[in-house]
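Dear colleagues,

As part of the handover before I leave the project, I'm documenting each prediction I ran so the next person doesn't have to rerun anything. This entry is a single chain, and its sequence is reproduced below.
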Amino acid sequence: MSVIRCDVLVIGAGAAGLMCAMTAGRRGRMVQVIDHANKVGKKILMSGGGRCNFTNTGTTAANFLSANPHFCKSALARYTPWHFIEMVERHGIAYHEKELGQLFCDISSKQIVKMLVDECQAAGVQIRTDCGVQKVERGADGFHVHTAQGHFHAASLVVATGGLSIPSMGATGFGYELARQFGHEVLPTRAGLVPLTLSGKHQERFNELSGVALPIEARCNGVEFRNSMLITHRGISGPAILQISSYWQPGDELRLDLLPGQDALGWLRRMKAERGAAELRTVLSEVLPRRLALRLCEHWLPDRLVRQIDEPQLREAADLLQNFPLVASGTEGYRTAEVTLGGVDTRKVSSSTFESQLVPGLHFIGEVLDVTGWLGGYNFQWAWACGHAAGSVA
């Protein structure tokens, strides 16, 4: 079988891999990209409901989780959201800001994939799909990669294989196996940005509320996110819950403020003074979804006229509304998780070049690394930034 020789071989045709390939190609490097999937950029295509939340203008290192929190700073500082926006505008892709700095395509995420592929082609990059890797070896002259489409020989090898989230899109643990093969430690992985499941009494009490949505503030382990929550037939979802899920693990306390930004006690006292003849469930239905208000009064709050609720009970009710203890039993897992927490330990990877400190010429980028962003375009910005950093040197 013939040998395909190149300067840089990128395994993984996702966001980070394509950015790395185009950047290296622009430097005159001969670049090959291979992916076991049948088309490139699958997670890009499905992201943002098909509109691709391609960056966040407020991106900072504080928006990422890692055992090594300083690791992401260098790459993020060198390739900012504005660099990527410039490329998007140059390709004539219309976009809009949804909320909190989140930028989406007006039309389709297919435009982002086409832009990346076009940039790769302009830089002379060759992309091969349906090209699974069978074996990777390192010799004195570089890397030898055996695949379903032949034997590749490259001076630099870039691992951009992603994490374990959404296996239906082709996610596997291959990148972690490769890292271990070359002596790298892989930190424990788990699903992130994922719906939480309920069981027992909480599930019974919330079961009939499926479809109810409301703004909340979710709090766990000293972190809080204010956004919307959606009650599902299995548990809870929505942006606030997806965000907090990355900080929550089984057994951790999870609290919800059901009236974020409001003074629940002040409001209850006012209702007692002004609407004393009304039932609590009635006034509560004016500030919360009605089905939820009724359920709260059935199981947790006084189900009586507001004037009949004394001051200690008002305080108790206010505390419950602003500090609701929800016992989650688990997550929906990698099946629906947007990202994978954990991954290749960054302490043996250069934060400026993403090159392995153990194996010269080997680079790790994207979700395979122990760096995970918040919901809202941060993970894409990380992919662009680390892909650009590795592609500038590989």
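Residues 45 and 110 are 6 Å apart (CA to CA). The two ends are 26 Å apart (CA to CA).

All the best with the project,
I.
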